[in-house]
Amino acid sequence: MSMQIKQWQTVGTIFTLILGTLLHFTYEWFGKSPAVGLFSAVSESTWEHLKLLFVPMLVFGIAEYFLYGKDLPNFITVRVVSIVFGMFLIVAAFYTYSGILGKNFMVADIATFFIGVIGAYVFSYKLLENGALSGKTSQVIGVLVLAGLVGAFALFTFFPPEFGMFRNPVA
Prior knowledge:
Layout: H1 2-23, H2 26-29, H3 34-37, H4 46-67, H5 75-101, H6 106-130, H7 136-158
Helix pairs in contact: 1-4, 1-6, 4-5, 5-6, 5-7
């Protein structure tokens, strides 16, 4: 099972990198459709760029759940914790490098996305492999956190707070 999990995490990494990259552009491609905006970046804000990791990992995680995840007692919580970890890596890497340099660079921004995705899937593999977060309470908390994230992305897409990571630096 460990080898199967490793293979799925590798495929998930590639899937997330490709779909996440495409989601950077889909809002514009589809005429700024609000429906597309729910899962695509609608601005250049840090928050909106977190969708580029969140949405593909969620979609791939749903597929994984039905393929093998339902047989793992920790799958749902591990996926949610891994998504949050990947998002944290993106935010930490972005604000660290841009804070030190005083500005941001597109190639470094792309690198932060890659760091977040790869880090999230490595973390996911390690947690799935060792059976961490297997309890029923963990699974309930995982579902609640996931629901909160889905709600936050939907709400803040259309009503972003006046707070640093939600601001569009281009506007």
